[in-house]
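$ run holo --ligand "S-adenosylmethionine" --emit tokens
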Amino acid sequence: MPPANDCKPAASAPALTDTGFRLIQAKAYEWFGLHITASKHALILSRLTKLADRLGLSGVPALIELYRHTPSDEAKQELFNSLSTNWTGFFRESVHFDLLRTRLLNPLTEQPAVSRPSLRFWSAGCSMGCEPYGLAMVLHEALDGLAGWDAKILATDLAVDELDKATRAEYPAEAAQNIPAAIQKRHIESLPAGGEATFRPRDHVRKVVSFAKLNLLHPWKMTGPFDAIFCRNVLIYFDDKTRRSVVERFVRLVRPGGYLFLGTSELAPTGMKGIQLIGPSAYEVRGQR
Ligand SMILES: C[S@@+](CC[C@H](N)C(=O)[O-])C[C@H]1O[C@@H](n2cnc3c(N)ncnc32)[C@H](O)[C@@H]1O
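-- output --
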């Protein structure tokens, strides 16, 4: 007689085994710095299922096999696109724009035109561009339409599909909700009716921003110095070690007296030298580093 439980239907193998999950965890950390905790198993399964579909694979086990061996750069990029969280919005955590205005931009307007410095900003982890375009609007507002100013914003991300959206710069109506009405009036324009997107930042805003693909884990070509770096709601996906190394590199690229803005739920690693907290997750970079 077989034991009673042999009569039960055989349980089907889970689509994402613990071994498969650990492999994705390890690769996401090694390639992109993403720190995925065990509690994300169901979320990762759902994202990998969609990715397997998109790549025309038979399922998640085939996807795991792809990443177990030596995947192409394109396959790695697909994995990043599917694992990364890109939520963003115009004037998100606008306290940072207020701080920039009061501490950096307003005092600049009191200087004579001949001593105007060039202004350089970096939006690191810019997603679909709301953060750098919002910053460009703030610069236009504070600095007299940027007439006579040399101001540039570099905006980078590793998610190429988000960078495509950022370059297209067409957004649905709800994305305008947090843009103050007066700023909307001056800096965004309506798109022809009928499409999903209803507005875009005006030309004078778009031309201040340039986009580039960049993995924050890799070496950076930029030498700075930047007047301010915005890296908001990105470090939250990294572990302490990666966070510390990225923030140390940011600090080296900000000019003394410049600023580093992190997401308001993020903090610079403890004991970091050369920065002083001046507001919610906002830091002034000091001269002595
Ligand atoms: C939640 S969004 C934040 C967007 C914007 N900074 C904001 O606060 O609204 C996080 C962004 O970080 C990017 N990111 C995550 N890991 C990255 C890495 N290793 N290199 C570059 N960008 C990365 C993601 O692609 C995503 O667009």
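-- notes --
The pocket of S-adenosylmethionine is lined by residues 32-33, 84-88, 92, 125-127, 131, 157-159, 162, 214-217, 232-234, 237, 263 (CB under 6 Å).
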